[in-house]
Design brief:
Blueprint lengths: L1 H22 L33 E12 L5 E8 L2 E6 L5 H7 L5 E11 L2 E11 L2 E4 L13 E14 L5 E6 L3 E4 L2 H6 L9 E8 L13 E10 L2 E4 L2
Parallel strand pairs: 3-5, 9-11
Antiparallel strand pairs: 1-2, 1-4, 2-3, 4-5, 5-6, 7-8, 7-10, 8-9, 10-11, 11-12
């Protein structure tokens, strides 16, 4: 019995030595340690995008109607050219210049590039010429000043519901000519109250309009933080 145990012990010892010798042969590099697990909020930087150029296209035609984005800021217009009606988009900070130089009904020449989007073909405006006057997107929009944000109380009756380009409700227009922006979740939960004629109050954050931006009907815009309707107050996230 002792002899058998001795043989087993010797065999195990030889096997361990052989394994150690194989794993740590002289001159052989150990494999690198595994990469640390991904930490939330620490996504790797995306690969750098190479520079690109875009060929500009010129269109001649007539401005039919100016259009707004989800915040009721003018950022586009419908355009009739060669018998077709096109959707034109421009940076919102150009609105004041464009509305002054080329109001609806003006015949103008546009420079820009067309892009295919989920909304359909969109022509992105780079420059507009009317006679000898040219408006172009040469200067980037000024960054918003955080100090220009301020708390704002509001109260009034809903006179109209605001919709985005897809036709979804994204805010309320109060009788005081104020647009109250609401996130989709709040719209869904409070849909029974979001009707013209309903009275409500609340608090929110009002941001000063960047230079050059124009809102439809000169509405003041407030992002809601609380809403008080029918005796209940709701926190808006």
């Amino acid at each position: 019995m002792k002899s058998e145990l001795k043989k087993i012990t010797v065999a195990v010892a030889i096997a361990l030595c052989a394994t150690a010798g194989y794993a740590q042969q002289p001159g052989q590099l150990l494999p690198p340690p595994p990469a640390p697990p991904h930490r939330p909020g620490m996504a790797p930087a995306p690969p750098a995008r190479p520079g690109a150029v875009t060929q500009l296209t010129t269109l001649d035609g007539k401005i039919l109607e100016y259009t707004t984005n989800d915040r009721r800021e003018y950022d586009g217009f419908t355009f009739q050219s060669s018998g077709s009606t096109l959707a034109i988009r421009f940076p919102a900070h150009l609105a004041a210049q464009l509305l002054k130089v080329a109001p609806a009904g003006s015949s103008v020449s546009l420079g820009g590039a067309q892009d295919e989007t989920p909304e359909g073909p969109i022509f992105h405006l780079y420059s507009l010429r009317k006679g000898e006057t040219v408006v172009s997107d040469n200067v980037p929009a000024a960054l918003p000043d955080p100090a220009a944000e301020r708390a704002k109380d509001f109260k009034g009756n809903i006179t109209e519901l605001s919709h985005d380009r897809r036709g979804m409700i994204n805010g309320l227009i109060l009788s005081g000519k104020m647009l109250i922006n609401l996130p989709p979740a709040a719209v869904g939960q409070l849909s029974q109250y979001l009707k013209p004629g309903i009275s409500l109050s609340g608090t929110g954050v009002q941001r000063a309009k960047p230079a050059g931006v124009v809102t439809a009907d000169n509405l003041d815009t407030v992002d809601a933080r609380t809403l008080s309707i029918s005796g209940n107050t709701y926190l808006v996230r």
